[in-house]
C-alpha cells in the first residue's frame, strides 16, 4: 500500500509542473491573456497623446529653467 501511494505522489509531483508548463505555453492562452493585458497596460501610441506629453515636458522644462534663473538672480543680488 505504501509503495502505491509513493508512486501516486511522485506522479503528481512530476505531472503538475509539466501540465502547468504545457498550459502556459499554449498560443491561444498567450494571445488571450498576456498580449491583451500588455496592450491594456501599455496602449499603442496615439499621435495626439504623444503631442500632449511633449507639450507637458516642454512646459516643465521652461518652468524649471525660470526657477533656476530666478534663484541665480536672487543669489547675484546678495
Describe this protein with a few key phrases.
78 residues, mainly alpha, 3 helices
Would you write up a description of this structure?
The protein has 78 residues and is mainly α. It is 88% helix and 0% strand. It is built from three helices and no strands. The chain has helices at 2-24, 27-41, 47-77. It is elongated, with a radius of gyration of 29 Å. The termini are far apart.
Give a brief outline of the structure:
This protein has 78 residues and is mainly alpha-helical. Helices cover 88% and strands 0% of the residues.
Task: Describe the SSE topology.
Blueprint: H1 2-24, H2 27-41, H3 47-77
Family: Belongs to the PET100 family.
Protein name: PET100 cytochrome c oxidase chaperone
Subcellular location: Membrane; Mitochondrion membrane
The low-confidence parts are none
Estimated share of beta-strand residues: under 5%
Structural class: mainly alpha
Query: What number is the mean pLDDT?
Result: 85
Backbone shape: elongated
In DSSP terms, counting alpha (H) and pi (I) runs of 4 or more, how many helices? 3
Give a short account of the largest sheet: none
Number of strands: 0
First and last CA, distance: 92 Å
Portion of residues within helices: over 70%
Radius of gyration: 29 Å
What is the ordering of alpha helices and beta strands?
A: HHH
Keywords: Membrane, Mitochondrion, Signal, Transit peptide, Transmembrane, Transmembrane helix
GO cellular component, one term: mitochondrial membrane
Pfam family, one: Pet100
Signal peptide: 1-27
Amino acid at each position: 500500500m505504501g509503495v502505491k501511494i509513493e508512486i501516486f505522489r511522485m506522479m503528481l509531483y512530476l505531472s503538475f509542473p509539466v501540465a502547468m508548463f504545457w498550459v502556459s505555453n499554449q498560443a491561444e492562452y498567450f494571445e488571450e491573456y498576456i498580449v491583451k493585458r500588455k496592450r491594456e497596460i501599455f496602449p499603442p501610441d496615439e499621435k495626439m497623446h504623444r503631442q500632449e506629453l511633449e507639450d507637458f515636458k516642454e512646459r516643465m522644462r521652461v518652468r524649471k529653467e525660470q526657477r533656476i534663473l530666478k534663484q541665480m538672480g536672487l543669489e547675484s543680488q546678495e
